[in-house]
Amino acid sequence: MKKLLLLLVVSLLAFLLVACGDNTEESSTNEDKEEVSASETETSEEEEEATNKSIDELSIGFVPSREPEEIITATEPLKDLLIEEMATLGYDIGEVDITVGTNYEAVGEALSAGTMDIGLIPGGTYVLYDDGAEVVLTATRAGLSIDSDNPKDWNDNKPTEASDEQAIGYRALIIAGPSEKGQELAEKVNNGEELTFDDINSASWAVMSTSSPAGYIYPAIWMDEKFGKTITDLENVVPSDSYGSSFARLAADQIDVMVTYADARRDNEESWSGEGTIWDDTNVIGVTPSIYNDTISVSKNSDKMDDDLKSAIQEAFINIAQTEEGKEVIAIYNHEGYQEAQATDYDDERKAQELVKSLN
């Protein structure tokens, strides 16, 4: 009996020792697995970081189609949005620098020189500088409630409203203000009468720089088609640095006529300083052919620009435009989204530029 009890005790001790050994081994194995897993995770993150290319700075230029300070303030969030988006696309950007050019040409020249990496510029500016700038995206915008060649239609159906449909083109308008001469021209148009060159030449005009599609090029085409003349044939022309300045001069009767993009009155409705509303005080006296939308172009001569970076910039801006914060940023130019572009999209713009050159 004693031998039997002794045998049972020995067997029990042996079993316990084996079990403890198994648990210790299993615990050790689990710990080893956890350490390996953590190590693999850290290695994976390090490898992912290592695969991102580092760029100290990306510079972006905007044209002054709105007041420069307004553009700078509105686009400030773009810096972080672009840095975050580019990080997911394989680029660690140290800093995004945003500037507003003194005029349209300044941005085109900076892209051509390679001192600026990205430019948000109109098609006309891109075409003038396409030896050093490459278009990668075209902006899409909300269409408008009016899209007619007849200026009277714009006046009969004021105010112009936004449409739910996206558009890749827009009109330029020749707008008469509240001055005596401006009202005289508007009355003639609203009575269904044709303007003559003497009519418009008797007015004072505000125009933008020669590379501005809505502020110069397409109004020049309109004048050529209507009268066989161009802006340089006008006797009273005032260069303007922004559409905001032109509207201020129009409201103060300092000029009679200005040229601008079709929804500019909607953008400047609150800042209008005339006696009535901007819709009461202004009328359309001319409508240009449709203009292809603004571009996002990159520098061909930037030492950091290559095909991979261009593709990442395309994708980044498309993605940013689909976020609520991104929509707020690009709304400063009335952009609502972007689609990939190619140089041939702007062939009509090239024809427009050639016409302007021949007219000058």
Describe the 3D structure:
This protein is of the alpha/beta class and 360 residues long. It folds into two domains: 159 residues, D-Maltodextrin-Binding Protein, domain 2 (3-Layer(aba) Sandwich); 142 residues, D-Maltodextrin-Binding Protein, domain 2, CATH 3.40.190. 48% of the residues lie in helices and 21% in strands. The strands form three sheets. Strands 1, 2, 3, 4, 5, 13 and 14 form a seven-stranded mixed beta sheet that branches. Strands 9-8-10-7-11 form a five-stranded mixed beta sheet, with helices on both faces. Strands 6-12 form a two-stranded antiparallel ribbon. Strand 8, helix 9 and strand 9 form a beta-alpha-beta unit. The longest helix has 50 residues. It is elongated and about 70 Å long.
